[in-house]
Amino acid sequence: MAVQLETAPVLAVRVPKRSLSGELRAVKIVWQRDLIRFVDDRLRMVISLIQPFIFLFILGTGLSALTSGGTGGVDIRTFMFPGILAMSLLFTALFSAASIVWDREFGFLREMLVAPVWRGSIVIGKCLGGASVAVLQGVLVVAVAPLVGVPYSLTMILGVIGLQLLLAFTLTSFGLMIAVRIKQIQSFMAVTQMLVMPLYFTSGALFPVSHLPAWLAVLNRLDPLTYAITPMRHVVFAHLDISAAARSSLDPGVTWGNWTVPIWLDITIVFAIGLVVLWVAIVRFSRDD
Amino acid sequence: MKPTESAAIEVRGLVRSFGAIEAVRGIDLTVHRNEIFGFLGPNGAGKSTTINMLCTLLRPTAGHATVAGYDVVAQRNDVRRNIGLVFQSTTLDDYLTAERNLRLHAELYAVPRASVDGRLRQVLEMVGLWERRSSKVATFSGGMKRRLEIARGLLHSPRVLFLDEPTVGLDPQTRGSIWSYVRELKAAEDITIFVTTHYMDEAEYCDRIAIMDHGDIIALDTPSALKASIGKDRVRIDTPDNERALAEIAAQFGLDAVVKEGSVILSVENGERFVPRLFAELDVPILSVSVARPSLDDVFMSYTGNTIREAEATSSEKLGRHMARMGRR
User: Fold this and answer.
1) Helix-helix angle A154-179:A119-142, to 10 degrees
2) First-to-last CA distance in chain A?
């Protein structure tokens, strides 16, 4: 080894001052790291599909005996499908955000914290990584569409993937906002468990929101997830051949009083929330210890 | 690089408190360019707190410090560009290969793309891990991980490399090899190495050392000067009649010897030169003899009145109470 050093001239490199292109390289590598680790971890890929599929095929099949009258002839599994798409994103995105807590516990986070980069670049890279992984996972759920009575169509698939990207971005940012200051993975799991179930069940992922009692309707309209599920369901239902009555009861859109919130506004709301929580995550992450 | 700059690290009146506890109590320090500077002290003496302030991870409560000519508070990013860090506990991504860990580092530090491949190979060869570059870090031993971390810390050609307890938890052979990389490195590159350790024997590898205890620097000099400052060698002899030996030594040389664990022990300057005289002038037969130079342990003891192990025991107790109060961070 000493010989090597004497024969080869020392290649001194220079680290340039912080620049936009430097920050972009940091964002990209943090994003890539999450992708590499996801692709390497096939077990995680399989495991995170189990829960959505249990809901869809076991709970869905069990309930279909009860509900065939109430859905206007539409299979309950077809109805649940958009909600299950969102569910897979929810778990995967939060799991990805948890990786920052793992990194802190296992020490790797320090490697990123002492690097001459803006902390925001690390958060943005993590957010993109989590969102990409969630969408890759989500696409696997989209693939089972024909099994639940939703035939493949290009517009449906592209629309769903687009919405998945949006929702995964918002959910990962939300998870990061919580994760960046948490030191232990158990605490993160406890906090997210406490938040995820109420958010998911109030959102109307598993039931139509048209005829809810007033208290639940209010909670439902306050739940940000509602505004992501509604467009998702709209895109899936748009090319189903079902009766007008069934459509209006199963895919009514979100209403504020008598006004039906247009789909573009649903999407804008989800995106705006995503930007706000991402910003909060960056601010929290940049704070000194 | 600024040609005028001579000090790699300049510390003036640096203080860091955690609540009521002053972990670092206003220290002054100058580390010259291209030296290996050892930072010694028991666990809990304030070494890591100091290093965290120098590498911009912790804000000083008072005082200031520059590293590679940049202020650690006002010019954080400039400091970060110019330092390499190897922490006490590993900060590698176990699930990535050695090479990917280094490439990730190169991207985070925006190392110019054209130099990445060459420099990557160079640092991996230096620590003898080039052949293992495609293995996942999880398969590495503790010593290999530490070597990889040193390679990573060097990848961006830092001007100051901080090694925080680089050998803790490693076997003696690996500890030795880590130090030989460090010395090779100093010869090969224009780099200053700031290393903390609580192994006194390792301080011998340093050009200069500072000893820290209870948040203060209590001694700072070259290892040999520090040892010389406490002076004498220790000569130990075994005789059949220790009492008579004591009396004769007092009469012939005017020295106060003591009996410890059945041997006669006396402190003298230039022990090797003294031993032949001892043989010549003592009537009591000498069964065995040994001469010991003062070790840095002795240095530590003479400055703190404690051995490093005793000091460690008391400060870890203190730390324990401190942590209990702060809660787990």
Assistant:
1) 140
2) 40
Of A15, A17, A21, the CB nearest to B156: A15
Contacts with A183 from chain B: Cβ below 8 Å? 328-329
Evaluate whether B103 touches B123 at the Cβ level (below 8 Å). Answer: no
Tell me the per-residue pLDDT of B83-115, one tens digit each, with 9 for 90 and over. 999 988 889 999 999 999 999 999 999 999 999
Q: For B120-126, what is the mean pLDDT?
A: 92
Cβ neighbours of A26 in B, within 8 Å: 107-108, 110
Cβ–Cβ below 8 Å for B95 and A28? no
User: CB distance B55–A114 less than 8 Å?
Assistant: yes
**Whole-number Å distance between alpha carbons of A100 and A106:** 10
A10 and B92 within 8 Å at the Cβ level: the answer is no
Q: Region of A182 please: left (phi>0), alpha (psi -120 to 50) or beta.
A: beta
Nearest CB among B104, B118, B156 relative to A29 is that of: B104
Quote the tokens at residue A91.
Answer: 């778990």
Q: Which of B67, B104, B164 to mutate to test the interface with A (most CBs of A within 10 A)?
A: B104
pLDDT tens track for B179-200:
888 888 888 888 999 998 878 7
Of residues A168 and B177, more confidence is placed in A168
- Report DSSP state, residue B232: -
CB contact under 8 A, A15 and B115: no
Q: Are A71 and A79 in contact (CB under 8 A)?
A: yes
Query: What whole-number distance in Å separates Cα of residue B67 and Cα of residue B70?
Result: 5
**Residue A206 three-state SS:** coil
Beta bridge partners of B162: B85, B194
Neighbour count for residue B301 (Cβ, 10 Å)? 18
Yes or no, beta carbons of A26 and B108 under 8 Å apart? yes
Order of all β-strands in the sheet with B258-260: B258-260, B263-268, B233-238, B288-292
Q: Nearest 5°: CA angle at B329, between A95 and A199?
A: 35
The helix-helix angle for A154-179 and A185-202 (nearest 10°) equals: 140
Q: Would you state the pLDDT for residue A5?
A: 44
A251, pLDDT greater than 60: yes
pLDDT of B1-30, one tens digit each? 444 457 899 999 999 999 888 999 999 999
Among all residues of chain B, which has the CA nearest to that of A109? B91
Give the chain A residue nearest B191 (alpha carbons).
Answer: A12
Lookup result for tokens 């990013």: B77
Whole-angstrom distance, CA of residue A207 vs CA of residue A202:
9
Determine, for residues A10 and B189 on separate chains, whether the beta-carbon distance falls below 8 Å: yes
Secondary structure element (H or E) that encloses residue B197, with its range: strand B192-197
Count contacts between A and B (CB, < 8 Å): 118
What pLDDT was estimated at residue B287?
87
Helices (H), chain A: 2-7, 20-40, 42-53, 60-67, 76-106, 108-113, 119-142, 154-179, 185-202, 214-222, 226-238, 244-250, 263-286
pTM over 0.80: yes
Residue of B nearest to A3 (CA): B126
Q: Do A107 and B91 touch (CB under 8 A)?
A: yes
